[in-house]
Amino acid sequence: MTETVATATGLQLRRPQRADARRNFDALLVAARQVFAEQGTDASLEDVACRAGVGIGTLYRNFPTRRDLFESVYIGEVEELCAAAQTLADQPPWDALAAWLRRFVSYVATKRALVEALNHDSDVFRTCRGAMFTCGTPLLERAQAAGEARTDIDFDDVVRLVSGITSGGFVDEAQRDRVLQIALDGLRTHP
Predict the structure, then answer these.
(1) pTM of the model
(2) Residues 95 and 164 in one domain
(3) How far is CA 21 from CA 1, 6, 27, 180, 189, in A?
């Protein structure tokens, strides 16, 4: 038996009700994240099942298609990003925004292949994008209200800026972080 669970993004996931089946479901999502990050979206689903410690039949019972698995992993990643925004909301406005944008860049950098594998016109992609805007926009607006972020920008501008950063190739994470810092300096107001 499965139950339909509403996620933070508003999307529905069909999670098994039995404890052992739920453990397998969760293990498959963790394994898929790891395998797709290491090998890309063309990775073998048998590798995902093996890493999760389950058979391929269990994978297909939970995720009938590769796309179902991609979408479930993506939803989970976006939910973690949204949860991070809520956790950071108690920090000073600029610190919260900068920390969330660093998390966003790290998320996009490691999940680029997964994002590229999704249909950008799909309901899942649009809903997840909307959820990211819903959780990130207040962080920008709070920094703007505190006079710490430019007021001539909106959250879409910021997402495009940091997404552009992640689309570039970098020598290493340190270089990526330096480039992000340059972008953050451009977003911040300077007295």
Answers:
(1) 0.78
(2) yes
(3) 9, 18, 10, 41, 51
